[in-house]
Write a structure and sequence with these properties.
The complex is a heterodimer of chains A (151) and B (289). Chain A has helices at residues 14-69, 78-88; strands spanning 93-102, 108-114, 125-133, 140-150. Chain A is α+β, with helices and mostly antiparallel strands and 151 residues long. In chain A, a hairpin with a 6-residue loop joins strand 3 and strand 4. The mean pLDDT of chain A is 84. Chain B has 289 residues and is of the alpha+beta class. Chain B has a domain at 55-169 and 255-287. In chain B, strand 11 and strand 12 (229-234) form a beta hairpin. In chain B, 30% of the residues are buried. Classes of the chains: A alpha+beta (151), B alpha+beta (289). At the A-B interface, helix 1, strand 3 and strand 4 of A face helix 1 and helix 2 of B.
Chain lengths: 151, 289
């Protein structure tokens, strides 16, 4: 068994060992905390970004699909469409949409903007839907492109 | 001096014990740290995987949303322009059409435009393709899950053919409205396979009707006005053929009580929507009913 190291005054080098031990522990704790913070940040970013994005995408798709099923989109009436979107969209969401309407020869007939575009840099989710319109016949082929974001 | 050395030895032994404790503590802490780091790494890996899965799910939503919108557009186009009505009446699937179908060119133009539109204007890295050849040429439907095919010899022509893959239906109902005085003759092979109900109404309150169970194996037929219209049942398939300019035809396929399988009717046309990155696509037939 090895004896303790000690100096001429009988003081062991335990003091140095303790300091190293303490520093080792502090460094280890720092590393662990950094790793945990990094993991939490990743989780938070993931949760905020993609769960919100998925919900927003689903919400926007459903809203536009409902307006299509109800025949509101086919009216090509910006005010009516905006009013219906406002009625069904949750208060904490905003939506912007643009309809491009084409004739049967696929020439642009008109472009209809609905709502205000989001501020630059605002995280948005986008989508598109095609629909046809006309009274007795198919007069227009339309595509609505939309963006939705948390207010 | 000796006393001093003894004291130093005692202090040395105490220090050795403390040093061993320190080593154990360091090892324990190192193990704890390693475990925490492993957990953190697992968290990060899981998060990355979840994010990728989330991106895929988002892409699927985008693709599916656009697919459904084009499918609905095709359905609207069919309903507005084809001159054919499909609906459920009780436990029967009914197809109503005027033969010859003079609206076929309207449908052909409208669906061709939709095909070109869908293939040209989808943005955001999404590509679409439609193949409407089948509906434009013979306007063919498939009734699922019964696997019954309804088609025309030529869309816009004078002949409708219903071909079941098995006798998984109960009856055929045929109602015709003919712009002439009508008379009928028939040759029906009696059997218990298929219930046939035929009603023909014509001008001047003329009419004829048949209600009988027929054999699926034989070849039964009814002739209206000496051959202007023929209705054939052969190998369980029903064929209605007219040489008149305009006959209103309503065909009903009795599907029993559906047995929990409500019929779905699909056009034979295919629609495909694909996103490049991440690679997600959906290809399916257009559902009408």
């Amino acid at each position: 068994m090895r004896g303790a190291d000690y100096d001429q005054n009988g003081e062991t080098i335990m003091k140095n060992g303790g300091m190293i031990f303490t520093m080792d522990a502090i460094m280890a704790i720092v590393v662990v905390f950094l790793a945990i913070i990094a993991a939490q940040t990743q989780m938070r970013v993931a949760e905020l970004n993609y769960w919100d994005s998925m919900y927003s995408q689903k919400l926007a798709n459903d809203v536009i699909a409902a307006l299509d099923e109800q025949g509101v989109l086919a009216t090509l009436d910006a005010a009516a469409i905006e009013s219906n979107i406002t009625n069904v969209l949750p208060d904490n969401y905003e939506m912007w949409a643009e309809i491009e309407s084409y004739t049967t020869d696929l020439v642009v007939n008109r472009t209809i903007a609905i709502g205000q575009e989001p501020d630059a840099g605002k995280p948005v989710v986008s989508g598109q839907r095609m629909f046809v319109s006309g009274s007795d016949y198919i007069d227009y082929y339309n595509i609505i492109r939309f963006k939705v974001w948390l207010d | 001096m000796a006393r001093l050395r003894v004291m130093a030895d005692i202090i040395g032994n105490v220090a050795e014990k403390d040093s061993r404790k320190g080593v154990l503590l360091t090892l324990g802490l190192a193990f704890y740290c390693a475990a925490m780091l492993t957990l953190a790494t697992l968290f990060i890996e899981h998060t990355i995987e979840a994010r990728e899965a989330g991106n895929d799910a988002l892409a699927m939503q985008r693709v599916n949303g656009l697919f459904e919108s084009i499918e609905k557009s095709a359905r609207d186009t069919f309903q507005k322009t084809s001159g054919i009505t499909l609906y459920l009446n009780g436990s029967s699937l009914v197809i109503a059409e005027t033969l010859a179908n003079k609206k076929s060119s309207d449908y052909e133009n409208a669906i061709s435009s939709l095909e070109a539109f869908a293939e040209s204007y989808a943005g955001g890295g999404i590509s679409t393709s439609m193949d409407t050849t089948e509906s434009r040429s013979v306007m063919s439907f498939e009734v699922e899950p019964y696997n019954i095919n309804i088609t025309h010899m030529s869309y816009g022509g004078n002949e409708i053919i219903i071909t079941p893959s098995a006798i998984n239906f109960t009856s055929y109902g045929v109602r015709l409205k003919v712009p002439a005085t009508v008379s009928c003759s028939d040759n029906l092979i009696a059997g218990s396979d298929i219930g046939l109900s035929l009603e023909v109404s014509g001008d001047f309150n003329s009419s004829c009707s048949v209600s009988q169970s027929v054999s699926a194996a034989g070849a039964s037929w009814v002739i209206v006005n000496g051959g202007n219209i023929t209705i054939n049942i052969s190998n369980s398939a029903l064929r209605v053929e007219s040489s008149l300019d305009s006959v209103d035809v309503e065909l009903a396929i009795g599907l029993g009580n559906f047995a929990g399988k409500e019929p779905e009717v699909y056009l034979q046309d295919t629609l495909s929507v694909a996103l490049t990155s991440p690679a997600v696509s959906k290809t399916a037939r257009v559902r009408l009913l």
